[in-house]
Amino acid sequence: MLRTLVYLDADLASSIALRYACQLTRVIDMKLHTVHVEEPDQDGYAPGSGWVRRTWENAMLKTGEFEIAQLINAEKSSCPMLGAPKMLVGDRENEILREIQRESYDLFVEGSLHSFTAKKLYDKIHSRLYRHIPCPVIVVKNLVDLEKIALIVRDDVESKKLVSMFLKIFSGAKLNLDLIYCEFQEPGKLAFKGKVDKNETMSAVEEILMVNNWHPENCRTIQGSPEEIGDVLRNYGLVASSLHHSISKKSNWFQLLSHIPSPILICWQ
Amino acid sequence: MRILVAVDQHPYSAHVVKDVAKLAGNTWADVTLLGVGPKATDIGRSSNRAGIKHPLTEKLKNYRRNFLGHFEKEESPYEKKSCNYEFVEVKRGVWEELYICRGARKDLKIVLRSGNPVKEILAQSQEDESDLIAMGCYKKGDCQWEGAVNLPQKVANNATCSVLVVKEEKQIRKIVCCLDQENISQKSIEMINQMVTLYQTELEIVGLTDGTALKPMVEKNLNAILKYYNARQIKAWIKLVDVGSLASFISQEARRSMMALWMGKHSLLSKIFPRGKVDKLVQGSESSVLLLR
User: Fold this and answer.
1) Do A12 and B240 touch (CB under 8 A)?
2) Stated pTM of the model
3) Which domains occur in chain A, in start order?
């Protein structure tokens, strides 16, 4: 059973992430664990030390716990197996990272509303949490139905690692799957090539999937600008892609990921 | 709901009448088809009287026929049930025999006014207490009415109700609605709902941020609106746009999507597009524009 950690704040992004994660439990054999981190020094003043600080932190936790509990209760009807969240105090990224490493989670899910500019996603990918996280991540940008998954095929080595991660997470799931290869071009020339034109990497990936009882519905190449391709990929409930931590903001691959409005599953290279 | 459709004799007007017929079918709105032309000297009191001298009267009759043709006769809320000659007191002590039709559940008025088109359209909308003024325009260039420079822009600038400007035969792929204020009326949300149903498109709800995050009330509204549309099986996407990038975002999206903007009193959008500048938005957009007030 996959152990999945969902990060929650008392906001819309987390509400969407939780609802999406609950959808995942209906197709994957997974157990959801939720966590929230209260950052005591967020407002910029020192809350003392020793028992003063502990009392203050407990009060902060109580408030946070109430808000997160409300979020979880709202989803209980569609996700009855949700337990009480783990409440932590400290630096958000450090605490999440420690929790993932301590409990050996297989997947991390968090919400981050889709943004017009790439800055938000860029900051996230280059955050301490994402640079050191040992497991794949699903960034939930919008609440969509999980009916179809797109696997972005890149080069041979990266794609094999991506497929291996995908098979581990979605083992036993019954979902439609497409393999997508992207050829970046100037805007205004969006075009699609079908199965007949699939390349060697795509063929190799398809073979691995078929051996594992996954039969991609479509293998296609999409030619266009990152924005145009990102717009096409909105038809998928999840887009899986590999990603380097050091990816540049100007890179076409990064621009593509920032333009996709659907949730993205990131396999770290 | 009361819809005022401003028309002239050009193809973009026929297109908007078709769209409004579908909208009226979904909403059972009271509709006024308004033609505005030059001063006429001989307009028949009864529209089936021959010898009418105004160029728009035939077009208005056609538009009425096309509008009513959208509905099955038995199901049409605009179908008059029975007509008779009756004496009606038109003034105190003065009775006139008029041909009265009773029984239509909803009102379809055909009105012809002469004078300055912008003033007449706005005046009619005030008299009717319209919820929506709809008009078409050429999709090429800067959204013009033939022979009436910047008419859609001027109406959009000065109307006190919502305005829908439909670019001639431009297929709408997506409706993008920008939300920033803390109080969104139920009427506005339902208007968007009707547009999505009318054009069978997806909806993108834009939340404006001030660089850091959404205002708590705006986030709460966004969540409520998302739940509202999901419950009605309308696919709604969320996108956050920083206020600093808003102008660039709108100019990009207006090329391919219908823009629906809340222009309420306290809206940030009404500061970015104050009354005098709304015409630039209507003019520059390649797709249809819905200004919600």
Assistant:
1) no
2) 0.84
3) 2-111 (3.40.50.620), 148-268 (3.40.50.620)
